[in-house]
């Protein structure tokens, strides 16, 4: 993957994202000022911090409180993302996870989410987390594309099987609360014949034909490699994500690969 060092231990990824080599900064995340990491995350959208020790769950939660209020679910603040024997939800299968933003069904939308990787899949084992930069898609869209997208409002509906669920209506276009950029809020439908815990979409504001064509076109643009960064996990990666600017998903795992991530959502 092409990348360039820009100093301060930071290496830029393509088409966006950055790696901070923090091996000489201290033992764990607490050695680096939150403000520095937040700034790098807003600038690069995805910040990978390498060279640090992982934190035990309770210390991870305490650390993340330094970033802001945390979303809390029935399991607490830390979601264990692993492959389960008897999954009730597609997140815990070996399959793919389509694009979405976090917190659509939550009381408030996380500004950031932070992962730590306790166990990466073996090389070639798949399971990359894929990020798409919606602000970049909008910058490359024509005024008529944007005029059409501005009219669209989508209602999402899913049963609450895991920690989230219900019904929510969102405009397709939004504004980044920090940078002021225009962004896209879109979650891909999860058809019941393909996914556990399906997600259904209803499009309003345009005709059904216009809506279907617009979402097909938008999906193609969001998946264009020129706007996507696929993160191949390594053990002890910390990854912080700008949830407002991006949508994200996961590639399927290959073979019998395993992976253990922990995720905290920061409001
Ligand atoms: Fe997610």
From TrEMBL:
InterPro entries: AlphaKG_dependent_hydroxylases (IPR050411), TauD-like_sf (IPR042098), TauD/TfdA-like (IPR003819). Its cofactor is Fe(2+). Residues 11-264 form the TauD/TfdA-like domain. Transmembrane segments: none annotated. Keywords: Dioxygenase, Iron, Oxidoreductase. One of its GO terms (molecular function) is dioxygenase activity. PANTHER family: GAMMA-BUTYROBETAINE HYDROXYLASE-RELATED, TYROSINE ISONITRILE DESATURASE. This is TauD/TfdA family dioxygenase.
